[in-house]
Amino acid sequence: MSELIPSTTPIRAFEDHEDAVRAVAVFPDKRRMITGSDDNTLRLWDLETGVVLKKMEGHGSAVWTLTRSQNGKIIASADWKGEVIAWHGETGESITQPIKAHSNQITSVDFAPDGMVLATGSWDYTVKFWCTKTWQMQGEPIECGHIVLCVRYSPSGELLAIATDQNIQIYNPDTRECIAYCTGHTTIWRTRMSLAWTPDGKRLLSGGGDYILEWDTSTWQQIGHRWEGHTNTINAIAIHPAGTLVASASRDKHVHLWRLSDRRTIAVFQHSSYAEGITFSVDGNHILSGGHDNKISEWAILDITTARDACLTGDLSLAEELLTQEIHANANDFTSYANRSFVMARKHNWDNALEDAIKSLNIRPSLIGFISKGIALCGKGHVWEARVAFDVASMFTNQNSETNQFLLLIKAIALFNADQHEEAMLLIKDLDAACPNVDPLARRVVETYLCVQLGIKAFDSACHDEAADHFTAAVNSEAFSSKYIHVPYQDLTVLFGWDLKYLLLTTHQQRCQTFLSAGKHDEALEAHKYMMDAIDEIAQASCLDWSNGEFHVLCAANGNAALAASDYDRAIDIYSAVIDSNSASHVVFANRSKAKLGKMLWMDALLDAQKVIELDSLSYLGYNVKHAALHGAERYDEAIETFQTMLSMLDNAPDVQTRNLRQQYLRPSEVERAIRRVIDAQLDNAPLRVLHTTTGLLCDRETQMDAFKMSMLYKELVSSTIAHADKHIEHIEEVVKRYLKYAMLSHRWEGKEPLLHDIQGKCVYDSELDQVGGMTKLRSFCKTARDAGYNWAWSDTCCIDKSNNVEVQESVNSMFVWYHHSALTIVYLSDVPPSSKSDALATSAWNTRGWTVQEFIAPKEIKGATGIDRPAVAVFRPSMNSSREKLHWASTRITTRQEDIAYSLFGVLGVRLPVDYGEKQDKALGRLLQEIVARSGDITGLDWVGESSDFNSCLPASITSYKAPPCELPPLPEDDIQSSVSLLRQTGVADFASNFYTRLQNMSAPRFAAQRLHLPCIAFNVTEVRRRVGSPTPESYLTYGVKADGLHDLLITTGETLVKFWPARPIEQLFFLVRPWDRSLLELPDFTEFPEPSDYGDDTESEEDYGTPPSSPSDWSSGSPVKQGISDLESRALRLLVRLGQPFGAFLLAQQRSGEYKRIATDHDIIGQVQDVVSVGDLMDIRTIEIL
Questions:
Q1: Maximum distance among all Cα pairs of the chain, rounded to whole angstroms
Q2: What pLDDT does 235 receive?
Q3: 1129-1146 in b/e burial notation, b at 16+ Cβ within 10 A?
Q4: Where is the signal peptide (predicted)?
Q5: DSSP at 523
Q6: Based on the number of CB atoms within 10 Å of its own CB, is 994 exposed (0-12), middle (13-18) or buried (19 or more)?
Q7: Which of 1133, 1115, 1124 has its CA nearest to residue 1086?
Q8: 531 CB contacts (<8 Å, ≥6 apart)?
Q9: Nearest-angstrom CA–CA distance, 362 and 783
Q10: Which parts of the chain sit beneath pLDDT 50?
Q11: Which of these, 62, 72, 224, 832, has the minimum number of CB atoms within 10 Å of its CB?
Q12: Could you tell me which of 925, 1082, 1077 has the C-alpha nearest to residue 1014?
């Protein structure tokens, strides 16, 4: 036995690295060692001389992991930046240049047993395979779904174990088929989990968190309990070549040596800093460990195992025998004499203990020798001499504060055992000031143990109040902040035989017994409850006999009543008492779990749920409450897995009643399919790509979905929905909508703006983008959206790939839909200072831009101001009906690209058309207006003044032609219509009116074909066109007097030169003044029109909802509501004649050589009026005219 306190002095240290040593491996030749470090290098060492054979450079970042092939011919190393380098095993020369193997840090590498393949695992969630001949990737990577922390081939190479930060996955490396999953580690730091196979491949060990788990590779079930002993994260584990021992390196600065057979720690070695990489020597006689002390420490493990273990188990005779054998083998072994002195002291053989201590010091003065002498002298009652021995021992601590504290604690214990109680307790208290920078837990442990001893002495003396005070102080001590205090302080067990493992239980029982002996039954009951809450299940089992006699009065029925009344605290107390009395069924545990769920004590509820399963593994009840507890603890993966187990039990239940319970639940796969359908529906009306407001990265729809699936929100949704089949759709829609809701930016482009290629693959918050124009605006928008609770944000500057014509077209056609379905539109007004008054918003240039029309009227919430009337926005629906009003909205707007003035209206008008930048405004506007007429029949867009388009003369060349409000003539009052109808009845024109009515009723709708407008109209032949000289018109315009059959004379002002003619001077060219036919004058209901929804804010509308079925073209001159009460043809016909006699909006057509007609553009509306409808009936030509 080397030492009974942690060994702090390795037999050798290899020092040359300039930073932490992360990885260590030895070669089969037993002569060499390879190490990797945070100093970006590897070192090849001679194990015999300790000399560096080769400093291996090539990595650009910390070397995180390395491995060598089984034959030692190849070394592979990997670094923080995801690069791998292969090296020659003999020379240390690089075989390859750095290979960019992963997009993120590589955490682990391992060769297949035959050395033909290298496996690499990374934070990028993948494991990749590399051919060691070509160093090319072999096959497809394994997508693990979580951060990969370790990869290890089985000894046969038939399996590959992959440790992630969520589970352990077992794969067939040839087929890439997942064989099994293992879950057991609940606390894993994302960069640390280690795996090791036993040489026979029958066991797999995993080190994660501060413990090790053992797995049976035939069943992939956990074997035994956790291997506990470390107090911080385990960084690496290794298995002895013989498969009998295990070594682990930890951030607690210790290396533990474990015996595999019973999973016990048999030695501890102490680093001066975090321990990282670890391995056994080839012969198994040494451990080599690297750490943050920048060196590799070599520890001997030959003779430390059995004697120390014998001391820990209390077999002092065996320990004495083994140490005596060591002394006989080496008479100058001062350590063995000191250790045998400790054993003699444990046996209270003080004379022999002192004799061995003196022999140790005669061979070599040492720390361990003077400690053994001080303990022996205290045992003999020579307290003053013992103090001297301990004082001299302090000269051998190398001024190490931790070692010095441990020495003083041993001194305090020895003095206490020599009945120097006050001095011992005072010494411990003084240590708080003397060693302020050393972990105080050791002091608290010793103080608590000695306090318990004082309590026992007081109890034995019948001083119950004094004893209770000591025991109460002990149970409230910080020493019990960890239930594993016996592990880091095993040396106290070795030196003094302390039972620290059961110290907490012993102290609680002594306290309860003290209160009972004092007749304080209430305090005893409270102490018992406090004890059962504080100790673990194993400890609880050991004290059931005592508790059964004291707490049998409470029953489960009272607990059920409290649970039903939601009195969770009382229910928990009652159930706990029943359970503590060892009379509880699995139902009692289940009910206590439910009560704890009511208190949101998730982990406590989970423990009870596990107990239910343990007591009745065939009942679904335990899995039901376990799912609820795991869900509440946000351990959703485990919750879902547990729920699936419960569903299987319900499906296979022997009774029909239990099987019927299955109907109220859903399978996770059913929920996931439902979620995907809802996501698809939500994304159908969302932009093609958006910015993630938290990460600042640009994401497409698949990335959005992946981000959602990786989120805790998604897992929570699945876990919660499977248990509530009755309301799953509503819940899914609510959660998905909340996650995917996005904000849109409405702004005007100003000089250089960030484009997609500027930010693709970059974070918009990164300083590297500071020089990109417009980044301040974009960042402000993203931050504003993020602060408002939105995950996603869209800006037209960078969220559209403007080099992709298909995407541009899709975006232009869908933009209105995106704005409408956005949860928020944020307006950026660069020309309005923050301190401006609210009325200043209306003067912003934002209100003059073409695209901002749809950006204002589409959203349901907006921050900004506009010149468009709010009532118009409130009732707005995108459609082609009444297009003239919407064209008027845009008439004063401007766009950078002239075609955009038309494209920006696609969504407003519910139109989808190809986008063709370069076609110019008149053609873009012409195609839009052509589509409106062709699809809806709405011809209000023909109401304009200005210049004709080359696309079609009936359409304007510019959106500005709609600046003037629509031409609206006052309708004839209903009383006047009725009076006129009565007069007409008396004139006997009913037959004429009915015939005229029928002809108009049979007119076809207006249509466009090949840029030609086929316009149904009432045409009046123009008989005279004369120029009027001296009229007050601009120089570029001419005024003409126009006469037409059946109409009052007109004056027309136009920029075009017309051929003058009159009856005495006729021409062959025909001119018509036409009244576009308005079907609403027939006063028939339009049976094809669907009723408008009462609330356009319904977010469930799809893009198709925006389309409005074809309806009657509205007339801008004299349209009026349909009179649903007018049913007879004659009345409707007479009413039609009356209304045809009213003023109407008209335009002038001139025949072209090809026979078609062209509209003559004018600078104001042409208002015509029939002289007398009855007398000029034959002069009203009902026809469809083709207009170029």
A1: 153
A2: 94
A3: eebbbbbbbbbbbbebbb
A4: none
A5: H
A6: middle
A7: 1124
A8: 475, 505, 508, 509, 511, 512, 543
A9: 74
A10: 1-4, 303-304, 486-487, 549-555, 850, 852-853, 856, 858-867, 874, 1088-1125
A11: 224
A12: 1077
Read off the tokens for 1083.
């006063």
Question: Can you read off the two tokens belonging to residue 1127?
Answer: 């049913």
Q: Is 252 helix (H, G, I), strand (E, B) or coil?
A: coil
pTM for this predicted structure: 0.44
Exposed/middle/buried for residue 663 (C-beta within 10 Å: 0-12, 13-18, 19+): exposed
- In this structure, how many other beta carbons lie within 10 angstroms of the beta carbon of residue 55? 13
Counting beta carbons within 10 angstroms of the beta carbon of residue 362, is it exposed (0 to 12), middle (13 to 18) or buried (19 or more)?
Answer: exposed
Among the listed residues 1184, 1186, 1148, the one whose alpha carbon sits nearest the alpha carbon of residue 1168: 1148
CB atoms within 10 A of CB 750: 13
Q: How many CA atoms lie within 13 A of 606 on its CB side?
A: 15
Closest CA to 548 of 533, 530, 528, 562: 528
pLDDT of residue 538: 54
Q: Which long-range contacts (CB under 8 A, 24 or more apart) does 308-317 make?
A: 308/1, 308/4, 308/266, 308/267, 308/494, 309/259, 309/264, 309/266, 311/1, 311/4, 311/342, 311/343, 311/346, 311/493, 311/494, 312/264, 312/490, 312/493, 312/494, 314/497, 316/343, 316/346, 316/347
> Whose structure tokens read 């008027």?
888
The three-class DSSP label of residue 418 is coil
Q: Which residues pair with 676 in a beta bridge?
A: none
How many angstroms separate the CA atoms of 584 and 554, rounded?
11
Answer whether 41's CB lies under 8 Å from 295's CB: no
The reported pLDDT for the residue numbered 556 is 54
Q: Are strands 792-794 and 742-746 parallel, antiparallel or unpaired?
A: parallel
Return the structure tokens found at 742: 């996005």
Nearest to 1139 by CA among 993, 1005, 1011, 936: 993
Both tokens assigned to 887: 């064209």
Q: Measured between alpha carbons, how far is residue 1122 from residues 881, 971, 993 in Å?
A: 16, 13, 18
Q: How far apart are CA 145 and CA 592, in angstroms?
A: 36
Distance in angstroms (rounded) separating the CA atoms of residues 609 and 213: 22
Tokens matching residue 1161: 């553009």
Give the residue among 1023, 927, 1004, 990 at the shortest CA–CA distance from 1132: 990
What does the pLDDT read at residue 383?
A: 92
Task: Report the length, in residues, of the chain.
Answer: 1188
Q: How far apart are CA 17 and CA 15, in angstroms?
A: 6
Q: What is the pLDDT of residue 850?
A: 45
Q: Residue 1069 gets which letter from DSSP? A: S
Say how far residue 1151 (Cα) sits from the centre of its chain: 68
Give the pLDDT of residue 1117: 40
Q: What is the CA radius of gyration of the chain?
A: 45
Please, which residues have CB within 8 angstroms of residue 1148's CB and are 6 or more apart in sequence? 1022, 1042, 1052, 1054, 1071, 1072, 1073, 1159, 1160, 1162, 1166
CA proximity to 797, closest of 765, 780, 775: 775
Residue 292, pLDDT score: 95
Q: Reduced to 3 states, what is the DSSP secondary structure of residue 289?
A: strand
d(CA 969, CA 1142): 9
Identify the three-state secondary structure at position 724. Answer: coil
The string of DSSP codes covering 317-373 is HHHHHHHHHHHHH-TT-HHHHHHHHHHHHHTT-HHHHHHHHHHHHHH---HHHHHHH
pLDDT score at 869: 52
Coil, helix or strand at residue 863: strand
Integer angstrom CA distances of residue 42 from 52, 53, 177, 879: 10, 11, 34, 70
Buried b (16+ CB within 10 A) or exposed e, 760-798: eeeebbeeebeebebbebbbebbebbbeeebbbbbbbbb
Rounded Cα–Cα distance for residues 690 and 703 (Å): 10
